[in-house]
Amino acid sequence: MSAKIEDITDKSFDYAIIGGGTAGLALAARLSEDPSKTACVLEAGDPNINDPAILTPASYGSHFGNKQYDWNFATAKQTFCSDRVFPWSRGRGLGGSSSINFKNWSKPPADEIDDWERLGNPGWNWKNFQKYVQRAERFVEPAAELREKANIPLHEGDLGTKGTLPISFPRTFSEVETFLMQTTKNAGIPTAPRPYGGDPNGFFWMINSLDQ
Asked: What cofactors are annotated for this protein (predicted)?
């Protein structure tokens, strides 16, 4: 449930989480799985629950610069861009930047995650990262025809199928995307070997957080 700050000032909680972005909400969801514990998420933005502007795929990009959804930060002056300052969109509201990121679902290279462990943080490695991310994933495989047409590389075990977050590929694949795929090939950009298994280097179609 969502509430205003004045509604909870006289209440106590076992956990207080600052920020209702992707990390904050995931943490709150896990902590609240214990029915004996309570968690409060403090978010400066609006709840934006059941907001068509966020839930409708065709609204891509409409949030940028809109103060209801975007903090609209500015970068420092960029030396190699003639000292220009650029907008830096960050999600404002529950969901954080995941609410305005075109519904994309991606994973980092395994080496980047393993670097955390190499820096002296035991357990912060790709194997554990995958295990916990897959707990959230409920992946629905694309139709065989779409998979072949879009050259979608999937490997068994790279994506979770029993989590609470539905993820899948869009059901359509347009000529524009066909040309884009051919253009990247002509430019010498290879298809990513395992975009969801730790090797996303190259071109690939990204999974979306869509419930189909």
From this structure: FAD
